[in-house]
Amino acid sequence: MGLKIDLFKITKKVKNKKLANLFLDNALKLVIPFNMGMGMKIKSVKPDETQIQSLPVYRRKNHVGTAHAISQALLIEYTAGLLIATKYSFENYRLILTNLAITYHKPGKGILTGTCHVPDTWPDLKEGEMFIDMTTKVHNEKNELVSEGKTTWQLKSWKNTKTKKN
């Protein structure tokens, strides 16, 4: 299912960045229902970098009270996916995560921040499809590296998919 409106075009028109991020946060929770209640909050969206915060909410906790490995995986995926979506519109492309590899360095406590930067070069779209490798680093409030993940994304033009955009 594709998104019929370009959320980034709307947010670019909002002068107040906090208000724009709040709008985008809430809109993306509707588009990606799994993220609802996971404590994800957009910190910044720039053309070359995105930052997402993971707040210490109940659904994020594991059995020892720190950030569950899956919640960190979600933070890594969400941060990278959002950066890709700023370059390639949901309206034109289907974004699918095809690979996720994570290294966990220490327990995630408190507010965690995922940061993803654009790759050195964006790949070329060949025959309506491409793969993009992204790296996201997760830091705690002391700026210590908690985890880092490498994601691979398939971008495909909606006209080249079996499931057509609504």
Strand order of the largest sheet: 1-2-4-5-6-3
Strand content: 25-35%
Helix content: 10-25%
Q: How many beta-strand segments? A: 6
What does this structure look like?
By secondary structure, this protein is α+β, with helices and mostly antiparallel strands. It has helices at 7-13, 17-31, 69-87, and strands at 40-46, 49-54, 93-104, 112-117, 129-139, 145-157. Strands 1-2-4-5-6-3 form a 6-stranded antiparallel sheet. Strand 1 (40-46) and strand 2 form a beta hairpin.
Identify the notable features of this structure and list them briefly.
alpha+beta; about 170 residues; 3 helices; single chain
Question: TL;DR?
Answer:
The protein has helices at residues 7-13, 17-31, 69-87, and strands at residues 40-46, 49-54, 93-104, 112-117, 129-139, 145-157.
